[in-house]
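Recap from last week: sequence in, structure out.
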Amino acid sequence: MTHVPQRPPFGDDSPTKGSQASDGVRRRTVQAGGLEVPVLEAGSGPLVVCLHGFPDHAASWAGILDRLAQEGYWAVAPAQRGYWPGGAAPDGSYRIASTGQDVLTLIEALGREQADLIGHDFGAAAAYGAATLGPSRVRKLVTMSGPHGRQLMNALVADGDQQRRSWYMFFFQTALAEGAVEFDDFALVDRLWREWSPGYELPDAERAALKETLGAPGVLTEILGYYRQLFTLPADEAAQSLQARAFGAITVPSLYLHGADDNCFSVQLSDGMDDLFTNGLERIVIPGVGHFPHVEQPKAVADHILGFLNS
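Predicted structure tokens:
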């Protein structure tokens, strides 16, 4: 996988001027939704937006960006709200409706009417939100390691195995979380990667770049907001209605990938998703892969993605 050195927020580039990263991957900022959003991008052609999760950042998409660019796509990986200094949510929300709207706003800011979306973990949630709130803006949807619907919340109530896997979600609700995550050079983040992807070791340079992102001023508290808002509803009734819509049916052709060895989310959580996908859902379980398929097996994942996007 290509390593893109992290310089929060990806350097000082203006919204109209980019800088070269590595192997054809460029970095710049884009004005969207009241934020200067750092993005990595490669290639030109039909737009594909790649959305990261936690504990991760846009740089982990670099290998996929290169591959998509080689196949004739304009591949863009934005930092999700909260993931850079000055990138705190303008409305204070880290819920799926807000991050989904971010995606739609970015597509418009990039000058396109429509895009393909690829999302992992919380990035998958943002992609689902975009596809439900603005289906005409999404041509095809690819998600991984994060099922759509209420399966996860149901499992957190009734499934002891998933409760054990998701211990960190509950811990992140506490005031101890910031200090615990930062302690000993983000040792907890190292632990999560080891536990969630037991057959994979994140290279040292990429581990250091990720920790640089997480350790940037003010970022960690904002990131924990994604978890601290998981179990609550917005106070505003209109926001509640929008949040409910974001969990609705997906009407665009969709592909879902899940690692067979994912120790964060059980692969069984994606069982029964089909009813929410009215325009077809292809589900692929990848053997020997944990929670980060696009990092662990970028070639195989890119093959699946391109086969679907080009079909």
